[in-house]
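Render PD-(D/E)XK nuclease family protein in 3D.
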Amino acid sequence: MDIRKLEYFYYSQNSINAFIKCPLKFRLKYLENLSWKREGSIEENYYENIKQGLDFHLICERYFAGIPLGKLNNDDLIKK
């Protein structure tokens, strides 16, 4: 593991909670980029919603910073 990743790591509420609950899970998920997503419609919807939320927050950050939205501007669901 490259310890320099921590210098530029974006600490989210989820990543902090993962560290509090299980430092090993935090390391595997966020620092070593290992994923153990399970198959199934519930999990797929969960991850789709997470992606939509991340896109929404990115659009908000760009909008209020005056940065062009780029390809995210074409997402009809985000526009709503």
